[in-house]
Design goal:
The complex is a heterodimer of chains A (278) and B (343). Chain A is α/β, with parallel strands linked by helices. In chain A, strands 6-7-8-3-9-10 form a six-stranded mixed sheet, with helices on both faces. In chain A, β4 (57-62) and β5 form a beta hairpin. Chain A has helices spanning 42-50, 72-76, 94-99, 114-126, 142-155, 172-189, 200-208, 229-232, 235-242; strands at 4-13, 16-26, 30-35, 57-62, 65-66, 79-82, 160-164, 192-197, 212-219, 222-227, 244-253, 257-267, 272-273, 276-277. By secondary structure, chain B is mostly helical. Chain B folds into two domains: 23-69, no CATH class; 83-341, ABC transporter involved in vitamin B12 uptake, BtuC (Orthogonal Bundle). Chain B is built from 14 helices and no strands. The A-B interface holds A 47, 50-52, 72-77, 80-81, 83, 86-87, 89-93, 96, 100-101, 103-104, 106, 108-112, 134, 136, 138-139, 152, 156, 162 and B 5, 93, 96-98, 221-225, 227-228, 230-232, 234-242, 246, 249, 280, 284-286, 288, 341-343. Chain A: Keywords: ATP-binding, Nucleotide-binding, Transport.
C-alpha cells in the first residue's frame, strides 16, 4: 500500500497558476526528491501535502484514505515536517524542541509525560545529539539545528517525513551529516522521506547508498519526468529544465562502489553546446 | 559531571517551588506593613479568629486593618500582578516576540477609555469597572477582526491590529481628558490611569477576581500548547495542533485576565512585559514552568511595590509610577547575574 498518494493535483493563487496535473505515490522505505528551479512550486506542493494549503483540484490519499477525512492531529501522526529554515525566537532547550514532536499525542490542556520524554530522548539519540539536550537550541550551529528539527520529526513517530530543502544554508560537512542521517534512518527504520531540494546530486547520493530513490523533476507547472535518478537526471533533462550543460560522471570508490554525480559545466547562455565552446 | 547535573536539577526544582509559594509568604508579610504597627501574634490571632469565626479580645480597629484593608489589598495585588504577568508571557509566546506585553491587543487602552468615559458620564465606581472591562474586551475583539485576513489570523496582522486599536483608544482617552471637568473629573481619570489598589475590598476581589482566576487557570491549562504555537503557524500545524482554535483560547484567557486586572487596578505597565523575562531567567523558556512562575512572580512583585507605595511617603504613590522605578534596577541586576539566560 502507498503511504501517500497525490492524484492529479492542481493549485493556483487567484490568477497565478502554480502547478497542475501533478501525481506522485510514495511507498514505505522510499526517498523521493522533488527537484526543480526556483519558484517552480516545490514548497507550495509540500504545503498542500501538509494540509496548510488546499489544492484547487485533485486529491491526496494518506494511508489510502482521503486526507480531508483526517483531523489535524491525525495527519501529524502519519507525516512529520522538517522546515527549510526555522526562525528561532526563544532559547528553548534542545529537548524542549524535540518534545514538541509529541504535540499530536498530547491533549490541548496537558503536557508531554514521561513516556513522551523517553521518545524524545530516543529521537535525539538517533541524530546523535543527546549530549546537547539541555543546551539552548539557539546556541547550536545551523547543521546541528537542522538535526534537532529532524529529531523533532522523528519524535512524531510517523512513517513519512516531509523535508523542505533540509540542507539549505548548511556548509559542506553539515550537508553531508544531514544526508548521512537520512540514509541511516531510512535504512534502519524503513522511514519514507519526501524532500524538496535544489541539488540533483542529493538524489544520486541516496541512490549511491542503496536507498530506493525516486526523482520528480518539476518544471513548467508540472512533473516533466519521474522515476529512478539514473533515468531522470540525464544530461538532456537537466538541459531542458535548467538550461544548463551538465555532465553525469561515474567514479569508483573502493568502500562503496560506483558513485554517480552530476557536474554542472555551464549555462547555455554562456555558449556551451555539447561541451564545445562556440 | 553527572552528579553535578543532578544537583543542578534539584536546585532548579527547589527554586521553582520557592517561586510558586512566594506569593503566599508575601501576602502574609504585607499584613504587618503600614502606618498602624501590629505584632505577629496579634495578626495570627486575628486571622485565626476570622477563619474559625470565633471571638477575640483584639480591638476592632486592628481587626479592620488586617482583615478588611491589608489582606484584600494584598490578595488583589497578587491576582492583578499574576494576571498581567501571565498574559504578557502568553502573548510573548503566541506572537513569537519577546517585546510584546499584556496590552498588545489594545486591552489596556480600551479599558482606560471605558473607565474615563464612565467617570465623566456617571461618576460612579461600579460602572467604571464595568465600562473598563467591556471596552478592554471590545478593543481585543476589534484587533482580532482587523488582523483577520482570508479566514486566518497571521500574527503580524494581529499585532498591527492591536497597535492601531491601541492608538485609536489612546487618542479617545486624550479627547476625554480634554473635555473633562478639570477640577473633579480630570484628576480622577489621571489617577485611575496611573493605577492603584487602594479601593480594594473583598467585594472587588469577588467580582473582578472571577475573570482573572478563569483567565489565569485557562492559561495554566493550555500552557504547553503555547510552546508549540511559538514555533509559528506552519510548524505548529504540521506538529498536529489546530492553530486557530489554540490561538483563540490563549487570546480569550489572556484578555479575560488582563481586562479583569485593569478594571479594578487601572493601568499598571511594565509587569506584563518584564516579569515574564524575569521568569525566563529564573526557570527557563519552557512555558510549562514559565506560565505558573510568571503568575507567582507577577503577584509577588505587585504586592511588594504596592507596600512600598503605601509606606514610602505620606500619601500613596500610584503603582504605574513605581513598577518601573522598583523593577528596573532589579531587572538589570538579574540580567547581569544570569547573563541573560541564553538569548
Amino acid at each position: 500500500m502507498h503511504l501517500l498518494e497525490v492524484i492529479d493535483a492542481s493549485f493556483s493563487y487567484k490568477s497565478a497558476k502554480i502547478f497542475e496535473h501533478i501525481s506522485i505515490s510514495i511507498g514505505p522505505g522510499e526517498v523521493h526528491c522533488i527537484i526543480g528551479p526556483n519558484g517552480c512550486g516545490k514548497t507550495t506542493l509540500l504545503d498542500c501535502i501538509l494540509g496548510i494549503l488546499k489544492f484547487n483540484a485533485g486529491e491526496i490519499k494518506l494511508m489510502g484514505r482521503n486526507i480531508n477525512q483526517y483531523r489535524i492531529w491525525e495527519i501529524a501522526n502519519q507525516m512529520a515536517y522538517v522546515p527549510q529554515s526555522h526562525a528561532k525566537t526563544f532559547p528553548y532547550t534542545v529537548l524542549d524542541i524535540v518534545l514538541m514532536g509529541r504535540a499530536s499525542h498530547t491533549g490541548m490542556f496537558s503536557s508531554p509525560d514521561m513516556e513522551d520524554r523517553a521518545i524524545a530522548e530516543d529521537a535525539l539519540a538517533m541524530v546523535g545529539l543527546s549530549r546537547y539536550k539541555d543546551r539552548p537550541y539557539t546556541q547550536l550551529s545551523g547543521g546541528e539545528g537542522q538535526l534537532v528539527m529532524i529529531a523533532r520529526a522523528l519524535a512524531q513517530q510517523t512513517p513519512l517525513i516531509i523535508m523542505d530543502e533540509p540542507t539549505a544554508h548548511l556548509d559542506f560537512k553539515h550537508e553531508l551529516i544531514v544526508l548521512e542521517t537520512i540514509v541511516r534512518l531510512v535504512r534502519d527504520t524503513g522511514l519514507s522521506v519526501v524532500m524538496a531540494t535544489h541539488f540533483p546530486n542529493h538524489a544520486f547520493y541516496f541512490a549511491n547508498h542503496g536507498i530506493n530513490t525516486f526523482v520528480a523533476l518539476m518544471s513548467n507547472h508540472s512533473f516533466m519526468a519521474k522515476g529512478h535518478p539514473d533515468n531522470i537526471l540525464t544530461e538532456e533533462n537537466l538541459q531542458s529544465v535548467y538550461n544548463i550543460y551538465a555532465k553525469v560522471v561515474t567514479q569508483h570508490i573502493d568502500e562503496i562502489g560506483e558513485l554517480k554525480q552530476i557536474i554542472p559545466v555551464g549555462t547555455l547562455a554562456n555558449n556551451f553546446q555539447g561541451g564545445q565552446t562556440v | 559531571m553527572v552528579k553535578q547535573q543532578g544537583v543542578n536539577i534539584t536546585g532548579k526544582k527547589i527554586m521553582y517551588l520557592i517561586i510558586l509559594i512566594s506569593p503566599f509568604i508575601v501576602i502574609f508579610l504585607s499584613l504587618f506593613i503600614g502606618r498602624y504597627p501590629l505584632s505577629i501574634d496579634i495578626v495570627t490571632q486575628i486571622l485565626w479568629s476570622k477563619l474559625t469565626s470565633s471571638a477575640t479580645g483584639i480591638p476592632e480597629i486592628s481587626q479592620t486593618v488586617v482583615w478588611d484593608i491589608r489582606l484584600p489589598r494584598a490578595i488583589l495585588g497578587a491576582l492583578v500582578g499574576g494576571s498581567l504577568a501571565v498574559s504578557g508571557a502568553a502573548f510573548q509566546g503566541l506572537f513569537r516576540n519577546p517585546l510584546v506585553n499584556s496590552g498588545i491587543l489594545g486591552v489596556s487602552s480600551g479599558a482606560g477609555f471605558g473607565a474615563a468615559l464612565a467617570i465623566i458620564l456617571f461618576h460612579q465606581t461600579s460602572l467604571v469597572y464595568l465600562f473598563a472591562f467591556c471596552f478592554g474586551g471590545l478593543a481585543v475583539l476589534l484587533s482580532y477582526f482587523i488582523g483577520r485576513v482570508y479566514n486566518t489570523t497571521p500574527t503580524v496582522m494581529l499585532v498591527l491590529g492591536g497597535v492601531i486599536v491601541s492608538s485609536i483608544f489612546s487618542s479617545l482617552i486624550s479627547f476625554i481628558k480634554y473635555v473633562a471637568d478639570p477640577y473633579n473629573e480630570l484628576p480622577t481619570i489621571v489617577f485611575w490611569l496611573m493605577g492603584s489598589l487602594a479601593t480594594a475590598r473583598f467585594q472587588d476581589i469577588a467580582i473582578a477576581g472571577i475573570p482573572m482566576v478563569v483567565g489565569m487557570a485557562g492559561l495554566v491549562a493550555i500552557r504547553w500548547r503555547i510552546n508549540v504555537l511559538s514555533m509559528g503557524d506552519k510548524e505548529a500545524h504540521a506538529l498536529g495542533i489546530n492553530t486557530a482554535l489554540s490561538k483563540g483560547i490563549v487570546i480569550c484567557c489572556a484578555t479575560l485576565a488582563t481586562a479583569g486586572a485593569v478594571c479594578v487596578s487601572g493601568i499598571i505597565g511594565w509587569i506584563g512585559l518584564v516579569i515574564p523575562h524575569i521568569g525566563r531567567m529564573l526557570v527557563g523558556n519552557d512555558n510549562k514552568l514559565l506560565i505558573p512562575a510568571s503568575i507567582a512572580l507577577g503577584g509577588c512583585f505587585l504586592i511588594i511595590v504596592d507596600n512600598l507605595g503605601r509606606v514610602i511617603t505620606g500619601s500613596e504613590i500610584p503603582l504605574g509610577i513605581l513598577t518601573a522605578l522598583v523593577g528596573g534596577p532589579f531587572f538589570v541586576y538579574l540580567l547581569k547575574k544570569t547573563k541573560g539566560g541564553g538569548w
